[in-house]
Amino acid sequence: MPLYPAETVFFPPDLTEEQMLRSMGIGKPDGVKPRLLRHVADTIPVVAARARPGLLWRSGSVDAFREVFPSSIRLNRYLATADHVTVLVGSAGREMEALITEEPDPMRKYVLGVASTALARRALRVAETLLGERFPNCIVGRPLSPGNDGLPLALQGPLLKCLPIDRLGLVYDEAAMVMVPLASVSALIGLGSYIRNSDEGCPTCPSADCVVRLAPRLPAGEPVPALA
Asked: Which of 42, 52, 156, 190 qualifies as a FRET site for 149, CA 20 to 30 Å off?
């Protein structure tokens, strides 16, 4: 596989009332029934104590990625200005799946499902933040997920084959194109062209181990060399 080794990241399962309501499609708590707000308030500490959401990713050059990933018009348009790409999967985790399965109360089960969805979505935000911190001289693209934004859902299988998803306890049903746990999301993120100010370059980059090997400082106007 001409991509760099996969990396697993676990992040805190702390959620806020605002994040929970947003996951339900509710922008503000005004007008929300007190009973639902109580369930949300009761669920947040349970999730914080039990959940173990995670993120698994793998990076490489766009050329290397194209060698192993099927082409699509939407994907080609998305990667047109990218030099590197990160493929990833995020999940609320098996622990959350177990909590939902074990919960007998329908309303509490629903709220736990909402929390799971919020954690899976948060994995994408965590990925964007970490990539931005590690590679501050790159433009980090918006995550693009199979089945959304014009990217065929059928591309989810090839994307997940790029990753050792068992590290997160994930299983993929290729026929149904469904991941288990259900509160999981796959995506890819493009890393755009190197951005250089007069005093910037790899010598000033805080990333100690740059997996995409950002190009060293070059004379103004000289093109950035392709990855090996």
From this structure: 52
